[in-house]
Specification:
This protein is mainly beta. It contains 1 helix and 22 strands. The protein has a single domain, classed as Beta Barrel (Lipocalin).
Length: about 270
């Protein structure tokens, strides 16, 4: 499955991928024909660069009230954090119990919702007090999480995205993400931006823009080269982390174990 999605995106945007650090696969040598792909491809300009904790295995990222909120993964190291954007300093921190691998994160109302990978359990925190209040259950794996202001929107590593009721956590509907005629698997971290869902595609430098009504890919963003080779170390892992500042229309991107967080401006290829 990993080979398939990398091949699909290679054929769609004709872009080189980063070495798949931590993914256990190399990009395939052959390409398949992605039929009927009619959407724009974007690249980026870097507007600002900010420090980011290289020990943070970023799974979820938000920008709320001039600060970053971050969910970090790995069992025994998972956290919920409030982070100062300019300095990268952790202002508040909640340790997730060691048996859980934390994943996606979103805010709805005055509550923070955090997923776990394979435990079928999520955590609910009070946004202001930054304290755990409750738990919730869901089927399948938890990867990315965002909201459109009404539903919790969850990815599970497939090409499916589920819309959950934020009170009952029942699945209200599901979309299948399609680029042209082909499914886009391995959807990871999510962010809802101006009526679209942005999704990291795991083990690639690509973010896809998705129509939440029908699952169609409306654009692909190629972040090849965002983190320079000299900034990489043995801790550096894949691109993962999308945050959006609604007030100032700013887009922030980082990765797992990245020492930097980037404010970027998109431009069409």
């Amino acid at each position: 499955m990993r080979n398939r999605i990398v091949t699909i995106l290679l054929s769609i945007i004709s872009a080189a991928l980063l070495p798949l650090t931590g993914c256990g696969k190399s990009p395939p040598s052959e390409e398949t024909n992605a039929a009927n792909t009619e959407f724009p491809v974007y690249t980026y300009d870097v507007v600002n660069v900010y420090p980011h904790d290289p020990d943070a295995f970023t799974q979820g990222l938000l920008f709320i009230d001039k600060e970053l909120l971050e969910s970090t993964g790995v069992k025994g190291q998972s956290t919920l954090r409030k982070v100062d954007l300019k300095t990268g300093r952790v202002l508040k921190r909640v340790e997730v119990p060691a048996q859980y691998f934390a994943e996606g994160l979103t805010v709805l109302g005055n509550k923070l919702f955090q997923l776990t990978w394979r435990s079928h359990k999520g955590f609910i925190y009070d946004l202001e007090r930054f304290q755990l209040e409750d738990e919730f259950a869901y089927e399948g794996q938890g990867w990315g999480l965002t909201t459109d202001g009404r539903w919790l929107i969850l990815s599970d590593g497939t090409n499916q995205i589920r819309f959950l009721d934020p009170v009952t956590f029942e699945v209200e509907r599901t979309i299948e993400v399609i680029a042209g005629d082909l499914p886009v698997d391995l959807l990871n971290e999510l962010e809802y931006i101006n009526g679209e869902i942005y999704a990291n595609v795991w083990c690639t430098d690509n973010i896809v823009r998705i129509d939440p009504a029908n699952g169609r890919v409306t654009g692909v963003i190629d972040f090849t080269g965002l983190l320079a080779p000299q900034d990489r170390s043995v801790r550096t892992n894949v691109l993962n982390g999308i945050a959006y500042d609604v007030e100032k229309d700013r887009l922030f991107i980082t990765g797992k174990g990245w020492p930097k967080l980037y404010e970027v401006r998109l431009k069409q290829k």
